[in-house]
Amino acid sequence: MRSRIEPDRQLTTRMAVTMFLLGLVYVAFIAALIVLLESVVLVVVIAAGLLAAQYWYSDRIALYAMHGRLVTAEEQPHLHGVIDRLCATADMPKPRVAVSDTDLPNAFATGRNADHAVVCVTTGLQRRLTAEELEGVLAHELSHVAHRDVAVITIASFLGVIAGLVVRFAFYSQLFGGRNRDQNTAVALVAVMAVSALVHALSFLLIRALSRYRELAADRAGAMLTAKPSALTKVSGDIARIPTQDLRTAQAFNAFFFTPALGPGTAVANLFSTHPSLERRLEALAEISAELGEPGSRTP
């Protein structure tokens, strides 16, 4: 049986192009560091080890950071029941199920592939949504797993961390030892900072562009899977009423969330968001509703 979550060719192409461009950027970055610095090989090896750990243990790291815990069908029968039905409909392996005890109404999927995936929902989400709305959010998260974009966004996001580690190591090695602090050293440090700033900016833009499109792709796939309205409007509206401290805690995981942990922001902030605007998502969902012959709403 073929999965009902069809591959999104545009998403696959965008992921391939993003990873290729990021690869070029970081090869150039490492080449520049080799020219400018000493002991860069050690830093690269350490960074590669951290990336491998992030890739293989991304599910555990995300659950630990969000205080999530795996739950059994006996503990969460309704949640497991919804995921069981969706996975049967989509003809895909059932991921592990987790719950995060926070009032932030959200959900995320993580894991390097479908066989090692975890779908986590918060208690705040479960309290606020109806059964139909929860099904829509979970279908969205399962679409991320089926599209295999979770692993790609994990790797892409972590490359920025590598750049930061390399630059920090270089700065402190120059500050406290290694070379004499002469004019050449100062020039090398300025060059490293300039290169790292450029690398970070390029990485930031590429990742944001990919992340916004993958959310639209998951919205579409999830809506097609359930043939029901999405919970996007309600969940996004509730985000604005969550305490600021809870939002700050969760913002590092925005790229993985169903909806970003952001309160009302400026146009510039929305431009650099990991998610498309609420208006753009509602417009896309209205188009899907029309395809399915369902009445679509264009207002939050």
UniProtKB/TrEMBL annotation:
GO molecular function: metallopeptidase activity
Principal location: membrane
Keyword Ribonucleoprotein (UniProt): no
Cofactor(s), by name: Zn(2+)
CDD domains (UniProt xref): M48B_HtpX_like
Membrane topology according to the record: Multi-pass membrane protein
Record text on cofactor binding: Binds 1 zinc ion per subunit.
Record's keyword terms, sorted: Cell membrane, Hydrolase, Membrane, Metal-binding, Metalloprotease, Protease, Transmembrane, Transmembrane helix, Zinc
Domain (Peptidase M48) ranges: 75-288
UniProt-annotated binding residues for Zn(2+): H140, H144, E215
Family under the similarity heading: Belongs to the peptidase M48B family.
Protein name as it appears in the record: Protease HtpX homolog
Lineage: Bacteria, Bacillati, Actinomycetota, Actinomycetes, Kitasatosporales
The gene coding this protein: htpX_1
